[in-house]
Amino acid sequence: MLSPHPEGIVLAVRAYAGAKRNEVRGVSEEQLRVFVTQAPEKGKANKAIRKQLADSLDIKASQIELLVGETSPQKKFLIRNVDEQVLRDTIYQLTQEDRE
Q1: CA distance 69 to 45
Q2: What is the mean pLDDT of residues 2-12?
Q3: pLDDT digits (tens, 9 = 90+) for 40-78
Q4: What is residue 67's three-state secondary structure?
Q5: pTM, rounded to two decimals
């Protein structure tokens, strides 16, 4: 799900646009599952996913860049200026909350 990149860390995401609410809901097939209410049109869902990632991971949206998957549900986001272990711990906490 996380892989090194010269400029930071790449996070693999499985996007679910048009959901009932915005949330991060666990991990599936080594991808973080991110649900957003925005429809997948004209980049609206990608912006919402970026915002949801920033909110959930407690980082700034400006630290997140979509690298791959502009029109696909399988996406890769580059996350800059974050410690990999801190990011892993945050994702772990998010996915544990989902199981409760």
Answers
A1: 12
A2: 97
A3: 999 999 999 999 999 999 999 999 999 999 999 999 999
A4: strand
A5: 0.93
* DSSP-derived secondary structure for 15-47: EEET-SS-EEEEEETTEEEEEESS-SSTTHHHH
Give percent above pLDDT 90 in the chain. 90
Q: Which among 71, 29, 30 is positioned nearest to 49, based on CA atoms?
A: 71
Q: What type of residue sits at position 15?
A: A
Q: Strand pairing of 8-17 and 23-28?
A: unpaired
Element (H, E) at 86: helix 84-99
CA distances from 89 to 40, 81, 94 (A): 29, 16, 9
52 and 24 Cβ atoms separated by less than 8 Å: yes
Rounded Cα distance between 88 and 91, Å, is: 5
